[in-house]
Amino acid sequence: MPQSVLNTIYKSIVQPVIDYGICIYGYTYPSHLKRIENLQKRAAHIILASNSDYSLLFRTLKWKTFSQRRDYFCRIFIYKSLNKLNANSCHQLFEHKISQIKTKGIRRKELILPNSSLQCFLNTIFYTGIKAFNALISMLDVFQTLIHL
């Protein structure tokens, strides 16, 4: 089959299965995610019929890695929760804190990072996902500062 057909099959059948619930299971232990990453790599090798490094194959296919997709979908989930675009039960999952740092007169609104000593909690959207979301907010602040220079 042509590469374009194989890529379409992957994106329409395999990728949605991986993406389903990615915000819930996506930050689990790396050893658990290895099988999914290996599946993605094997699919890329099959579609392009190449034994090249998987990062080159992903660039050629214009795919995002598992961790890139997870962070993307989790940031969207958090954004929708904060803006009441998700189910009602999701609105109170995340809380803003007003940062003391002012950028061009605008106070940064980061999310409160919960305290937990449990390792299993650190591998959830409620900890690692919030850290990724706050990092995105920080990058946006840098871009806004650069634009205003």
Overall description:
With 149 residues, the protein is mostly helical. The chain folds into two domains: 3-71, no CATH class; 72-148, no CATH class. Helix content is 62%, strand content 9%. It has seven helices and two strands; from the N terminus they run αααααββαα. The protein has helices spanning 3-19, 22-25, 30-48, 54-61, 66-82, 119-122, 125-148; strands at 96-103, 106-111. Strand 1 and strand 2 form a beta hairpin. Helix 1 (3-19) packs antiparallel against helix 3, helix 3 (30-48) packs across helix 4 (54-61) and helix 5 (66-82) crosses helix 7.
Give the biggest beta sheet: 2 strands, antiparallel
Low-confidence stretches are none
On the 0 to 100 scale, the average pLDDT is 83
Secondary structure tally, helices: 7
Strand order of the largest sheet: 1-2
**Assembly category:** single chain
**Radius of gyration over all CA atoms, rounded:** 19 Å
Query: Strand tally, please?
Result: 2
The level of helicity is 55-70%
